[in-house]
Amino acid sequence: MRIGVPKEIKNREHRVAVTPEGVALLVGAGHKVVVESRAGIDSAFTDQAYRKAGAFVTDSADEIWRCELVIKVKEPLPDEYRHFRKGVILFTYLHLAAVPELARELMASGVCAIGYETVQLESGRLPLLAPMSQVAGKVAAQLGVQYLQKENGSPFQGTGRLLGGMGSLNAARVVILGAGNVGINAAETVACLGAEVLLLEANETRIHTLQQKTHKNIQVHHYTHKNLIGLLPTCDLLIGAALIPGKHAPMLLQRSDIALMKAGSVFVDVAIDQGGMSETSRPTSYEDPVYLEEGVIHCCLPNLPAAVPQTSTAALTHATLPYVRKIADMGLDAAVASDPSLKLGINIRDGNIVHEGVRSALAGQV
Ligand SMILES: NC(=O)c1ccc[n+]([C@@H]2O[C@H](COP(=O)([O-])OP(=O)(O)OC[C@H]3O[C@@H](n4cnc5c(N)ncnc54)[C@H](O)[C@@H]3O)[C@@H](O)[C@H]2O)c1
């Protein structure tokens, strides 16, 4: 199969869909891989490294999109819609619940769109979201720590509180909504710095499992709105990390809830890629990463793993490559028939939304 790898065009998206090592495996299996020039440069992979791995490197995005299978990192942007055509299998993060316009374009063009984030194992695990979520959780924690400082590189001053406290001064309090991959990784990162962490989770089994084994500074509680608003006035850093696969992120925060937080406290809404968890959330970019609402610094970057592309590209390729191989080796129909988790990845096919969660999230909008 011919596999195309475009250069990402999203603002400061530094990742690429496959490493040269991954290319070598695909080429070794008899596939042709076409990589856009400089696609890997921010992840420290030169065009030469891709050529050496057996890829054909081109300056032409058109040539990439003429391939049968196009693998990407982020959802296509409007400048990329012109490439859509029937016969293309697009394999990337899509997060369609947050971009109905993209869903409409994919449906109208006949592209078969497979979302990394909805590939789901029988256990419920999301194997292609998990590695980026683990990275995003750690980066969200690091950004939270940065913006809590008075001098943090933004126009807004944080509370100026050191996460781990000092001497008799208490540690800062971090509240995290959702104890999945993002939530746990963020929790462990800030707990290591000495913060007091409260994870609010909706799934009883998950709460029970985590209560047996988490770090001593981390408590896991059942999410209720009452629990949440009780914590907000003393919360220094709030992290949004809840997910219902395929759907809009649970909207757990009204503006009046955010207003309960201290001036200069920080809200990192990691779930912004699924539409965000607060009435006050809107996507930001690396050029302008934060804004102020109700005195609270909001950081809503939809591509946190892009901040650490060397780590993220390697982790992403490791997770996606077995699925890319399967589609390329067997063809989509046979691949899907052999693997129910991949079948759940298909969001749009032949002009129809086939993923149930995505369909209900976009009802009335497409
Ligand atoms: N901004 C970024 O760069 C970036 C990167 C990776 C992931 N994400 C996003 O982060 C979010 C979390 O991803 P994840 O991989 O950790 O998901 P996950 O499935 O591992 O965990 C989500 C958790 O949220 C819990 N949850 C659902 N509804 C809840 C509620 N009402 N209250 C409390 N908990 C609730 C679930 O039970 C689950 O444990 C997703 O929206 C994902 O798309 C964003």
UniProtKB/TrEMBL annotation:
Family of this protein: Belongs to the AlaDH/PNT family.
Gene Ontology biological process: L-alanine catabolic process
One MF annotation (Gene Ontology) recorded for this entry: alanine dehydrogenase activity
Residues passing through the membrane, by range: none
Leader sequence segment: none
InterPro entries referenced in this protein's UniProt entry, alphabetically: Ala_DH, AlaDH/PNT_N, AlaDH/PNT_NAD(H)-bd, NAD(P)-bd_dom_sf
Species the sequence originates in: Mariprofundus ferrinatatus
GO CC term (a single one): plasma membrane
Enzyme Commission number(s) from the entry: 1.4.1.1
Binding-site positions, substrate: 15, 74
Role this protein plays: May play a role in cell wall synthesis as L-alanine is an important constituent of the peptidoglycan layer.
Keyword RNA-binding on entry: no
Keyword line: NAD, Nucleotide-binding, Oxidoreductase
Identification of the protein by name: Alanine dehydrogenase
Record field: catalytic activity: L-alanine + NAD(+) + H2O = pyruvate + NH4(+) + NADH + H(+)
The keyword Oxidoreductase belongs to this UniProt entry's keyword annotation: yes
Active site, UniProt feature: 95 (proton donor/acceptor), 273 (proton donor/acceptor)
Domain Alanine dehydrogenase/pyridine nucleotide transhydrogenase N-terminal: 4-136
Binding site for NAD(+): 133, 206, 270-273, 282
Superkingdom of the organism of origin: Bacteria
Domain Alanine dehydrogenase/pyridine nucleotide transhydrogenase NAD(H)-binding per the UniProt entry, residue ranges: 148-300
Pathway entry: Amino-acid degradation; L-alanine degradation via dehydrogenase pathway; NH(3) and pyruvate from L-alanine: step 1/1
